[in-house]
Write a structure and sequence with these properties.
about 250 residues; mainly alpha; binds zinc ion; 10 helices
Length: about 250
């Protein structure tokens, strides 16, 4: 696997998602809210599909099943603790503690940390297979766009201009590239670690889907919203399933 491809993927997953979120700001507020919400539903399915259909089977095929599952469980606990410490994930509820206390630096540092992990996830996936790397990059891109949009909102509200918000967001996204490249070289020389890196990556995806996106989805209770959630989660899973079957 060439490092150049991995760097392109890292760039897409991190700064690409900031750029796409920035472009989407040009949409009207109402449309923006809609598109971002649907992307979040789709991301829920894509993340579950990438973890259960892509990363976990791949990790098991390279290592011992029991150890892979234990690593995933450990990863979920680790991400729970990390979230406690830095409140790195989104909160779209304006009354939550993150919104009240969160100064812009906390948002940016939390995101830098989260993006660093996404970078490692992308590198580990590319090292196990190119197709898995591509799906994982897509999964990162999709869950990051709604996240970055939320961050833009908070930064602009705390007094950043649009362009300053963009550049700071892009800078915090750049940690993905640094950590991704470091992870690539580390894992390339220590190949036996790849299945565990994949297992931790799957834990990160499961955590984001189940502990972050799905609770957010439950805040909308109308029949129409619930139906589109179920449909888009299913579509997300099917996208990964079909593409892995076709070996795209
Ligand atoms: Zn992410």
């Amino acid at each position: 696997m060439e490092i150049a491809n991995v760097i392109i993927a890292l760039f897409l997953g991190s700064i690409g998602s900031v750029a796409l979120a920035g472009l989407m700001l040009l949409l009207g507020n109402e449309k923006l809210e809609k598109v971002s919400t649907y992307l979040m539903y789709l991301a829920g399915g894509i993340l579950l599909g990438a973890a259960f259909l892509g990363m976990i089977p791949k990790a098991i095929s390279m290592s011992d099943t029991r150890q892979v599952l234990q690593t995933i469980m450990f990863g979920i606990l680790l991400f729970f603790i990390l979230e406690k410490i830095i409140l790195w994930r989104s909160c779209r509820n304006k009354n939550c503690e993150r919104h009240i206390n969160a100064a812009a630096p906390i948002i940016l540092i939390g995101d830098a940390f989260h993006n660093a992990i996404d970078g490692v996830v992308i590198a580990a996936s590319f090292l196990s297979s190119t197709e898995l790397g591509i799906f994982v990059t897509l999964s990162v891109l999709l869950h990051e766009i709604p996240q970055e949009l939320g961050d833009f909102g908070i930064l602009i509200k705390s007094g950043f201009s649009r362009s300053k918000a963009f550049w700071y967001n892009a800078l915090s996204g750049a940690t993905a590239i640094i950590f991704g490249v470091a992870a690539f070289y580390t894992l390339e020389s220590l190949k036996s670690l790849i299945p565990y890196a994949l297992a931790l990556s799957a834990a990160s995806f499961l955590y984001i889907a189940l502990a972050d996106l799905i609770p957010e989805m439950h805040r909308k209770t109308s029949f129409k919203a619930s139906l589109s959630q179920v449909m888009l989660i299913t579509v997300g899973i099917l996208i990964i399933y079909v593409s892995l079957q076709l070996k795209l």
